[in-house]
Amino acid sequence: MCLVCRRTTSGFSRCWQCNQHFQSCGAELADEVVPISMAAESGQLVHVLRNYKYSRNPAVRRQFTNELAGVLATFLARHRRCLGEFDTVTIVPGTKQRKDGHPLADVLGRRLTTTSSAFAEVLATTGDNTRLLRPDEYVVHADVAGERILLVDDQWTSGASLQSSAIALRRAGAARVTGLVIGRRVDTRAPGTFDWDTCVLCRQG
């Protein structure tokens, strides 16, 4: 299993994509990446992750945002301690600007008591790339020097958005960055690696 994104690998410590990131930026990457769920390409979670921000139906957006809030709440109730201490909770910024803001900002900043007091949107992006590692396209607009950051993203495909954000935070002085991802995109042939009772950090011991 890849040490970074937790996808299955064949005898290697990192998958090809995560190894490319490591060779490029090494210690500047996120200290941990914690996927809550493996999201199969044809599954319901991928459908929710695609539409909770951009469905044309407001009722669908509300329903799917509520479902993702439930996923985050359930995971944090069971595994908050696994993540360690953090000073700030923030999100990977979206590449498309929304008049009503990012739905996860409302979930983490208002709805969930485990994160609301520490939540702040400290990142912005100047690009529309989501597949390539480009930390220079991410701007940190708050003082994060010495802070432990919980960096939340809705999904991980290549990992470029989260890792670019993590690098930007590290370059701004953050002491530690832990990435928390709702859905790690996988194909349907990938075997399960953990469940609600055992997160990837529990599995590490």
- Radius of gyration of CA atoms, rounded to a whole number: 16 Å
Helix/sheet category: alpha/beta
Number of helices: 7
What CATH calls the topology is Rossmann fold
Number of discrete domains: 1
SSE order: HEHHEHHEEEHEH
* Helicity range: 25-40%
General description of the model:
The chain has helices at residues 16-25, 44-51, 58-79, 103-111, 113-116, 160-171, 200-203; strands at residues 32-40, 88-91, 123-125, 138-140, 148-156, 176-186. With 205 residues, it is an alpha/beta fold. The chain has one domain: Rossmann fold, CATH 3.40.50. A four-stranded parallel beta sheet has the order 1-6-5-2, with helices on both faces. The chain has a two-stranded antiparallel sheet with strand order 3-4. Helix 6 links the parallel strand 5 and strand 6 (176-186). The two termini are 15 Å apart.
